[in-house]
Amino acid sequence: MHQADLQQIECLITLAEELHFGRTAERLGYSQSRVSQLIAALESRIGARLVARTSRRVALTRAGARFVEEVRPAYRGLLRTFDRARGRAMRGAVEELRIGFTGMVYEEITATFRALHYRHGVAVHTHDLPLGSPFTAVLEGDVDAVIAELPVHDPELTVGFRFPAQDQFVVLGAEHPLADRDAIDQEDLAGLDLLHRTGDAPDYWMAARTPPVTPSGAPIPSTTGITTVQQGMALVASGHHALLACRPLIEHHARTDLRYLPVRGLEATSRLGFVRRTDHTTPALLALAELLEQSSRSKPAPSRRSAFRVLG
After folding, report:
1. What is the pLDDT of residues 283-307, one digit of tens each?
2. Torsion sign over Cα 241, 210, 225, 5
């Protein structure tokens, strides 16, 4: 496979996640015209239109969605192979940790990675993981650890550090009938169609992300699955779905077409963990866990008012 082929495939996969040419260009370090050129070249090679673009929205065509679904696993496997080869080449100069993420890598965490490199000579390489498959990569040894949402009840996995608990919010389209409220109750979730993660995570983990029933036992509809945060935000903005998200996530996704409402009863129920395989402990992993704990102790408690400014 030539470098141009990889660039075209990487560009389409990133565009499928962002659904925005500007954000795709920023994420890849390209100009928007370069993104358009790469997509056009791939469409020409395949002989089918992969992306439908108007002045207001970007979406994959049916052929584009099918192509991304089929090529993404092979592409990620190739990236892992490159990463392992690069890691072997680097180990003579610096130790390396492969850390997986689902969703975003927050600034506070990347600052800790820089501290690990500065203090211990350990380089961190981050890996994007499917939103609904947070633990497969660490169990299979493709990454050394993951920063993922809790809970974890698998004896093969150990939580090395628990991040501070965060309030949960429901994300709604700006025109939704509930969007003008200050907050909603858990029982109100029964009137929404909550998006759920698609993947191979355990059932208990999936239920913690998207509860199947309210406290009184009323079913909570969930007809549609998502594989990325951006896909979820786009579906919510369409007005037909809702999404549960924690405070840091919504603070990084302020949009005028979305509203973020606190859910009474779900305060401080969302929590990330630094998770490794139980049989895989190294000084570098322990050092990173310690730095994460130090960073958490030194960080001021989040202000509730700062979150409500995001709500618009």
Report:
1. 999 999 999 998 887 765 444 433 3
2. positive
